[in-house]
Design brief:
Elements (H helix, E strand, L loop, with lengths): L3 E5 L9 H13 L4 E4 L9 H11 L2 E8 L10 H21 L3 E9 L9 H19 L4 E5 L12 H11 L4 E6 H7 L3 H10 L3 E6 L14 H11 L4 E4 L11 H4 L10 H22 L1
Parallel strand pairs: 1-2, 1-8, 2-3, 3-4, 4-5, 5-6, 6-7, 7-8
Helix pairs in contact: 1-2, 2-3, 3-4, 4-5, 7-8, 8-10
Bound molecules: manganese (II) ion.
């Protein structure tokens, strides 16, 4: 089961200047990862050509994730807000394509943040129509979309694997997959095993984030790792598995606040990334031995 091991850019840096990009990409490769997940949350200022050159230099693959803001929320009832959201998603898609990646993931379908009420019918339809539209654009560049459901404090559109699969069946595009993140699953799912099985059975298990319950170092929180790795092994998951972790040590102007990163959970990015890869590899190997 050759999983592609990735690491989120925020483990290294909150910005993407040429110096920051070089350090993040070189450090990811040095720590033994196959891929870096970039976060072109503001895609207009993102230098994709520079990113592509650095990736090639260091032999690293790339994926991209983002979440939308209040102002670009495609689940809004306001057509102007939805239009701005579509423009942002389209720009992020271009950044990923020009950087050389094939999977765009994250909260592509709504704002990343707390909502004051449940989603409206019109808002949900706007979100679904936008994802269908984006999927068709993505298909032209051979790109897959992976929708990351989040816990209830970060979106009101989808909070569980089943809700994600239901949304995907309405969208009805072959290149739209479910993106499972252990941090969110830990808050919302009744069973990690059932969630993985359901996504795989639907043929839509497309992306995985491994994140600890407090978003710090893997193995130091309350995620049921042996269960999760066993479930992935059982269904033969061979996609991208990105380590995601946040600390007040590395701050992104908007993302860190959207995710409520108020505490310092680690200071040494290199040790954190190296340990996470060893933890993930050994967890998968143990699951394979037991399988
Ligand atoms: Mn995530």
């Amino acid at each position: 089961m050759p999983v592609t091991h990735g690491v989120h850019a925020l483990v290294w840096t909150g910005g993407w200047s040429p110096e920051e990009a070089r350090r993040a990409i070189a450090s990811s490769a040095e720590a033994g990862y196959d891929l870096i997940e970039i976060a072109p949350i503001d895609p207009t200022g993102f230098d994709a050509d520079m990113t592509a050159r650095l990736l090639q230099e260091h032999g690293l693959a790339v994926s991209a994730s983002l979440g939308l803001s209040e102002d670009t929320d495609v689940s809004s009832e306001d057509p102007e807000v939805v239009a701005r959201g579509r423009q942002r998603l389209s720009q992020a898609l271009d950044v990923l394509r020009d950087s050389g990646g094939t999977v765009l993931c994250g909260v592509l379908y709504s704002k990343l943040g707390k909502y004051a009420g449940p989603a409206s019918e019109r808002g949900r339809a706007n979100s679904q129509e936008t994802i269908a539209w984006l999927a068709d654009k993505a298909a032209a560049s051979g790109i897959t979309l992976a929708l990351e459901f989040c816990n209830r404090y970060e979106t009101n559109i989808m909070n569980t694997t089943q809700e994600t699969l239901d949304f995907i069946s309405v969208v009805d595009r072959p290149n739209v997959m479910a993106h499972l993140d252990t941090y969110h699953m830990n808050i919302e799912e009744h069973s990690f095993t059932e969630a993985v099985r359901a996504a795989a059975a639907a043929g839509r298990l497309g992306y995985v984030h491994v994140g600890e319950s407090h978003r710090g170092a893997l193995g130091t929180g309350s995620i049921p790792w042996p269960e999760f790795f066993s479930a992935l092994t059982e269904v033969g998951y061979d996609g991208i598995m990105t380590f995601e972790s946040f600390s007040s040590e590395v701050v992104h102007r908007t993302l860190s606040n959207d995710l409520a990163i108020w505490r310092n959970l680690w200071t040494d990015s290199k040790a954190l990334a190296r340990d996470a890869l060893a933890f993930t590899r050994s967890g998968l190997e143990a699951a394979a031995r037991q399988g």
